[in-house]
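[Q] Does anyone have a clean structure-token version of this?
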Amino acid sequence: MKRKIIKTGDGSTTIHLEEWDEQYHSKHGAIQEAYHVFAHSGLDHFISLKEPSSLSILEMGFGTGLNAFITLLEAEERHLRIDYTGVEAYPITIEELPSLNYVQQLDAGSFSDEFQQMHQVSWEKGHTITSQFNLTKRKQFFHEVDDEDRFDLIYFDAFGARVQPELWTEAIFSKMYSAMKRDGVLVTYAAKGSVRRAMQAVGFEVERLPGPPGKREMLRATKI
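[A] Here you go.
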């Protein structure tokens, strides 16, 4: 599938899949979306509820590493230990990496090496990226996830249901529910009624929240 790097509305870049007319991040702003959906509505929300000194995060759709990198920066700022697992079936290439301008756009030049390292470390093995942030990347399909009672927070960042409806089903969300600890939280940019109902069918308590720029709503689900 043909891929190209494009600039989004906030100046940050993302990858566009021409055949699907789909992006890894919102065209309205990749960094804005990542902060709104995952850092603020997910990480900040969980911290406000639990005040943890450490937590475990599962990202479904590691992609460009933007969500992971922002979470690393938050971990450093908050002195919070995070064990981060990223699931990705089709990793980006090293050749695409220089075109991703997140370090510059986030004014995070002191963490440039860490961003590179996140993409270069081996798969299926845990790595210490900083003293606050451990990363495990798993090259697998969503339906292969079989964790039980492990994660405090899930970033669900799959391609949209328009192009990959099989990733937004009761079967997948049942796996997410099993992978989470009690009172765990899942956040996603999606807001479709069918997605909300699939989450509710497997036991999640689901709330609609204001969406990131260019999107009216998003969803946050809690394991009760």
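[Q] Thanks! Anything notable?
[A] The mean pLDDT is 97.
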